[in-house]
Design a protein that fits this description.
By secondary structure, this protein is mainly alpha-helical. The protein has eleven helices and no strands. This is GAP family protein.
Length: about 250
């Protein structure tokens, strides 16, 4: 967290947006669309990406409109020793949550390997079939995008952190919305690059795309656990430094 405070706001937001661009809704689902049999339905994929971009833009605007005064109050509260202790507890909780997610995923992998559980691919496959069905309407595509956003909004820590940074910045409302729009655009940039590659060089990228989708499907929980642990560690380190607590792993 303190690392992000040392870089310009645009760079920090771009980094967080790229992290968000690796989530289920912004990359994994589009990847599954790209490797579906038959011709690439670019129009539907673009509609999906435009919808999920708009979804996060609307959520971000609501966030910024409602949290301006709350951010100032929270900043004053967190500047105290009590606030630092609260951050320390939150950081430990985030780190522990990451470890729990990792442990649960490891257990699920063992059950799958033993044939006692099925791989968790059902929901995404059903979403892909719904979007690519010949009878699917534009409304169905948009519905899938909104559903994906709702499913993972609470777990998108980079997005929530980015919105908090924007809400606490000295920028005016128009500039904040402009930054927010840029953030949401960068979120879907990895998927757009893959779509362009799939259209321009289909024979070359088809195999790597399938392997990439399979990797994201296998490591989704692991990626979540890493994000939780990293954010938790950064919060703990910042709070410990403010409280002058010497922790061996922090230095």
């Amino acid at each position: 967290m303190d690392f992000l405070d040392t870089v310009p706001l645009p760079a920090a937001l771009a980094l967080l947006a790229l992290l968000d661009g690796l989530s289920v809704g912004t990359l994994l689902i589009p990847l599954f669309f790209l490797i579906a049999p038959g011709r690439v339905r670019a129009g539907r994929i673009l509609l999906y990406l435009a919808t999920i971009t708009g979804f996060y833009l609307v959520i971000g605007v609501l966030f910024l409109l409602g949290l301006g005064s709350i951010i100032e109050f929270a900043a004053d509260a967190l500047a105290s020793d009590a606030g630092a202790w609260l951050l320390l507890v939150i950081g430990v909780a985030l780190f522990a949550s990451g470890l729990l997610v990792w442990a649960a995923d490891a257990r699920r992998r063992r059950l799958v390997a033993a044939g006692r559980a099925a791989p968790e691919t059902g929901r995404i496959v059903r979403w892909r079939e719904r979007v690519l069905d010949e009878r699917a309407s534009g409304g169905a595509v948009m519905g899938v995008a909104i559903a994906a956003g709702l499913v993972e909004i609470a777990g998108m820590l980079p997005y929530l952190l980015g919105m908090t940074m924007l809400a606490g910045s000295p920028l005016g409302a128009p500039a904040r919305v402009a930054y927010l729009a840029g953030y949401c655009a960068v979120m879907v940039l990895p998927a757009l690059v893959l779509l362009a590659a799939r259209i321009v060089a289909a024979p070359v990228v088809a195999g790597p795309l399938e392997r990439l989708a399979a990797w994201f499907q296998r490591t989704g929980a692991e990626n979540t656990s890493w994000i939780l642990c990293i954010v938790g560690f950064l919060v703990v380190r910042g709070a410990a430094q403010r409280l002058e607590i010497a922790l061996p792993i922090i230095g």
